[in-house]
Amino acid sequence: MRNNVPYVLLKYVMLHGLTRGSHVVDLEAVVETFESPAEQTSAACEGNSIVEPNVGMEFDSEEAAKHFYDEYARQEGFIVRLDRCHRSEVDNRIISRRLSCNKQGFHVRSRNANKPVHKPRASIREGCEAMMLVKVNRCGKWVVTKFVKEHSHPLNVTCISSYDRMMVSKDRKIQQLTKELELRDRQCHEYRRMLLSLLETVEEQTECLSKKVELVVNNVRTLENEVKKPLNTD
């Protein structure tokens, strides 16, 4: 069993016999699902080239879609920015993600008058609208629902500046941290669901046990009353 599974939950489950025979979810299986996802990019490749994204293209996961668009961007000569996402109102998991060119939008200067004035850093944003939008369908697949190919700036396949390399490293770090936070969020949600299920099961078993105890007490009282009755000597 993995070390990051809540020990209290595991101990309680084992002590009360609520492991594999119960409707409580198998914690080990849940952790395996979180930590060992079979994430394979389903996008087709032609030789060593990445095919152009198209509406309807499917991926096994958000991470697979990101990986595909990263490879496509590297091939075409631009850098991917992890853009906004939309979360489910039911369990707060991400159900859509926009992947944009890193030159998307425009730099917004701070309007804080009390903030110290520094020499403005050159902005790489040029209002580029190139992007790929993926959403989760009912089957759990991530599907491309929108793709904008055209960039508002020249693409450079062979040369990436040191600043762009730094931005690539920064964006990848952000992606890694975002993925880790999403994983922890999913784990917390699942642990909460399992705990509620566990408490519900304990409550049901306690109620059942109380009824059995009450029945035994009633039977004992009935037996005592029978014993106390005077014997018929006729």
UniProtKB/TrEMBL annotation:
Location of the FAR1 domain: 67-156
PANTHER family the record matches: FAR-RED IMPAIRED RESPONSIVE (FAR1) FAMILY PROTEIN-RELATED, PROTEIN FAR1-RELATED SEQUENCE 5-LIKE
Name recorded for this polypeptide: FAR1 domain-containing protein
Organism per entry: Clitoria ternatea
Organism lineage string: Eukaryota, Viridiplantae, Streptophyta, Embryophyta, Tracheophyta
